[in-house]
Amino acid sequence: MNKALLVTASPGAFAPFSSALTSAGFSLIRADSGEAALAAVGREAPDLVIIDDQLRDVSATELIKRIVAINAFVNTAVVSSLGEDEFHEAYEGLGVLGHLPPRPGLAEAQDLARKLQGLNAPLPKR
Length: 126
Prior knowledge:
The chain is α/β, with parallel strands linked by helices. It has one domain (about 1-120): Rossmann fold, CATH 3.40.50. The protein has helices at about 15-25, 35-45, 60-70, 85-90, 105-120, and strands at about 1-5, 25-30, 50, 75-80, 95-100. Strands 2-1-3-4-5 form a 5-stranded parallel β-sheet, with helices on both faces. The chain is globular.
């Protein structure tokens, strides 16, 4: 079972998405700030960190950089209202696995699960 860390100061707004992540096969960990997320990344070693870009204590880009300094192999996704071009410009080079809409749901959770499964699939033998 993959572990996902959901980082948001508004957990109620993400209740349906949290349920969808669990339904998609994730064990869910929660953090309400960037500092709490960094502690959880060090303690729990999640496979995926999903960051709400509306955190009060740190920007999503800065948090991703700090997470990668702790664990360079963790995958990240960002919940953001930015358009695709703006998002690409803001997060280019940070290795973000996914751009999620402000109210993600079951489809986005399933998509993240498929992407993560694809990354963890064994390489074909030659």
